[in-house]
Design brief:
- The protein has 339 residues and is of the alpha/beta class.
- It folds into two domains: 3-257, TIM Barrel (Alpha-Beta Barrel), CATH 3.20.20; 276-332, no CATH class.
- Helices cover 39% and strands 20% of the residues.
- It has 13 helices and ten strands.
- The strands form two sheets. A seven-stranded parallel beta sheet has the order 1-2-3-4-5-6-7. Strands 9-8-10 form a three-stranded mixed beta sheet.
- β2, α3 and β3 form a beta-alpha-beta unit.
- It starts with a strand and ends in a 7-residue tail after the last strand.
- The structure holds iron/sulfur cluster.
- Iron/sulfur cluster binds next to loops.
C-alpha cells in the first residue's frame, strides 16, 4: 500500500464566528494569522518532500474552511486544484464544522477536487456540545455526515475526549456513532489552552481537568469502538507544533505529547489480556506487521505487565501482514493452537 502524506496548510480561525470553550486556534496552529500569499509557496515547498511512491493531499486544516469568506475559499481551492489537475497531488482535504455543510458547498468542493472532508464533531451529546459552546447539535453533525457521504467524499470525524460535561459513556457513545457514520477518525484528548473559556472554567472549579490516566481511559474506550468497527483512527492527540509544545500555552500540564502512543498500547494490552489462555506460560502474540511496537508498548511496558500479571515464562510478539489493526491472535508455544 502506498504511503499517504498530507501537505498541511493552516487556516486558523478564519471566518469562524464561534468561540468553543476549548478553542484557541492561534495557539493550536502556532500562528497568529493565515497568509494567503504564501499558500502556493508552501505547497510547492512541501511537494518537494513527497517521495516517489507516496500519495499526497493538500490539506487545509485549522479552522472551519467552508465557513470562510466564499471568495477566499474558492481562491484557496483554486490554488490547490492546479496541483490536483497536474497530477501532483491526489486531491484536497479540509476540515470544517457540521453546520457549514450543505449541498451548495459540497457541489463547490466536488468541482474543485476535494476528496476528504474532516468534520469537527467533537461530541454526539447535545449536553456536552451546549456546555462547550459549539453552536450546533448532534443531529446537525449526523445530517452533515449523511450529506458528505451521499456526495461520495471520504469522511473523517474528529472527536474530543474529556470535554466538560462528558461522562465516560458520552465519549464512548460519540466514538461508536462516528464509527458508524464516518470512514475514520481523529481523537483529541482535551488539552486546556491558556486564554480560553475552558481554562477559566477550570480556574473557577467548573471543569475538573481530567488527569492523564482518566484521559487515557476515556480515549482507549473510544479507540476500542473504532477498532471493533474496523474503522481507522488516523491520529490520537494534537500534532506537535511549537505553539503547543510551548508550556506557556497550556494550562496545568494538560498536554501529554505521547498520549496517542500510550492509548494505542493500552488498548493492545487490554485485548491481549482478554485473549491470553489461562494457565499457559509461553505464548506468542501475533498482531499486524506495523503494529508490533504498539502491542509491545513503550519500553516493552506491555510485555513486562503481561509477564508479571499472568506469571508467563515467555511472551513473544510477531507481526503478520494479514492482521488488521488491533486484531490479535495468541498461540501457545508448545502446540501453536489458536485462541
Ligand atoms: S468552530 Fe473551530 S475554529 Fe471556531 S471556535 Fe470552534 S473549534 Fe475554534
Amino acid at each position: 500500500m502506498k504511503k499517504h502524506v498530507n501537505i498541511p496548510i493552516f487556516i486558523p480561525h478564519l471566518g469562524c464566528p464561534h468561540d468553543c470553550v476549548f478553542c484557541n486556534q492561534r495557539k493550536i496552529s502556532g500562528r497568529a494569522h493565515a497568509d494567503f500569499s504564501s499558500v502556493e509557496d508552501e505547497i510547492v515547498r512541501a511537494l518537494k518532500t513527497v517521495k516517489d511512491g507516496q500519495t499526497a493531499q493538500i490539506a487545509y486544516f485549522g479552522g472551519s474552511f467552508t465557513g470562510i469568506d466564499r471568495e477566499d475559499m474558492i481562491y484557496l481551492l483554486g490554488v490547490a486544484k492546479k496541483y490536483v489537475d497536474r497530477g501532483k497531488v491526489e486531491s484536497i482535504r479540509l476540515s470544517t464544522r457540521p453546520d457549514y455543510i450543505d449541498g451548495e458547498i459540497l457541489d463547490i468542493l466536488k468541482e474543485y477536487g476535494v476528496g476528504t472532508v474532516e468534520l469537527g464533531i467533537q461530541s454526539m451529546s447535545d449536553k456536552v456540545l451546549d456546555i462547550c459552546g459549539r453552536g450546533h447539535t448532534a443531529q446537525c453533525s449526523a445530517r452533515a455526515c449523511r450529506l458528505i457521504k451521499e456526495y461520495g467524499f471520504e469522511l473523517i470525524g474528529q472527536m474530543m475526549t474529556g470535554l466538560p460535561g462528558a461522562e465516560y459513556e458520552d465519549d464512548v457513545m460519540t466514538a461508536r456513532t462516528i464509527a458508524m457514520m464516518c470512514d475514520g477518525a481523529r481523537i483529541y484528548p482535551t488539552v486546556v489552552f491558556c486564554d480560553t473559556e475552558l481554562c477559566e472554567m477550570a480556574k473557577r472549579g467548573e471543569y475538573a481537568v481530567p488527569g492523564e490516566e482518566e484521559l487515557v481511559c476515556r480515549t482507549v474506550g473510544a479507540l476500542r469502538e473504532f477498532a471493533m468497527a474496523k474503522k481507522p483512527v488516523i491520529r490520537v492527540g494534537l500534532q506537535s507544533s511549537d505553539g503547543v509544545l510551548d508550556e506557556r500555552n497550556v494550562y496545568s500540564k494538560t498536554y501529554h505529547p505521547a498520549i496517542g502512543e500510550i492509548c494505542y498500547s493500552r488498548l493492545y494490552r487490554e485485548i491481549i489480556e482478554e485473549k491470553i489462555p489461562r494457565g499457559e506460560k509461553d505464548i506468542v502474540v501475533v498482531v499486524g506487521k506495523r503494529e508490533i511496537s504498539k502491542a509491545v508498548g513503550q519500553h516493552g511496558a506491555n510485555r513486562e505487565y503481561l509477564k508479571n500479571k499472568f506469571g508467563l515464562h515467555s511472551i513473544k510478539f510477531e507481526g503478520d501482514e494479514s492482521h488488521s489493526d488491533f486484531e490479535v491472535t495468541i498461540h501457545t508455544r508448545e502446540n501453536k493452537s489458536e485462541t
